[in-house]
């Protein structure tokens, strides 16, 4: 008799941002550098295709990791890992007609999933304080320096999510 296999934790890692708006390209750059550690993890550069992400979130996922540039949360290049309360959209409009499929921030994606009838899994944001989101290609120096620490933060999070706490 063989032991039952442990359940697989499915995780979607979503790089979000516009590579033509300087540091807003942080999420796609982190996603580009990540290799899924297991078949149960999918890493996607969604760029500015927020509705694509919202539709993908209608699939059953155990966890979601959003990687994005964040404003006004500290010094440029500061990386932060946050847990999102998916039960509250903080007043974001939940009307599908009001959603912009090419420019959705994470809270709008959350509202979009709910509007489409889905439920969000356990959700994290690995965010980096942006220095500039002006038009232009390429990350600012502090944000470019934060890419590798963010990649490591995502890897650590994936390790905890797929293997459980170490102790």
TrEMBL record:
<keyword id="KW-0064">Aspartyl protease</keyword>
<dbReference type="InterPro" id="IPR000671">
    <property type="entry name" value="Peptidase_A31"/>
</dbReference>
<dbReference type="GO" id="GO:0016485">
    <property type="term" value="P:protein processing"/>
</dbReference>
<dbReference type="InterPro" id="IPR023430">
    <property type="entry name" value="Pept_HybD-like_dom_sf"/>
</dbReference>
<keyword id="KW-0645">Protease</keyword>
<dbReference type="Pfam" id="PF01750">
    <property type="entry name" value="HycI"/>
</dbReference>
<protein>
    <submittedName>
        <fullName>Putative hydrogenase maturation protease</fullName>
    </submittedName>
</protein>
<dbReference type="GO" id="GO:0008047">
    <property type="term" value="F:enzyme activator activity"/>
</dbReference>
<keyword id="KW-0378">Hydrolase</keyword>
<dbReference type="GO" id="GO:0004190">
    <property type="term" value="F:aspartic-type endopeptidase activity"/>
</dbReference>
<comment type="similarity">
    <text>Belongs to the peptidase A31 family.</text>
</comment>
């Amino acid at each position: 008799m063989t032991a039952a296999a442990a359940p697989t934790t499915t995780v979607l890692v979503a790089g979000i941002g516009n590579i033509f708006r300087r540091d807003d390209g942080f999420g796609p750059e982190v996603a580009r550098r990540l290799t899924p550690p297991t078949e149960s993890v999918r890493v996607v550069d969604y760029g500015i295709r927020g509705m694509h992400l919202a539709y993908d979130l209608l699939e059953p996922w155990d966890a979601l990791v959003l990687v994005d540039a964040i404003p006004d949360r500290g010094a440029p290049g500061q990386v932060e890992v946050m847990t999102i309360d998916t039960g509250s959209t903080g007043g974001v409009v939940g009307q599908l007609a009001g959603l912009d499929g090419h420019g959705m921030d994470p809270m709008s994606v959350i509202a979009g999933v709910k509007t489409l009838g889905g439920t969000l899994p356990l959700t994290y944001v690995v965010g980096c304080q942006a220095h500039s989101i002006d038009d232009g290609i390429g990350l600012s120096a502090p944000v470019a320096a934060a890419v590798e620490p963010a990649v490591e933060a995502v890897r650590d999070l994936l390790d905890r999510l797929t293997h459980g706490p170490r102790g």
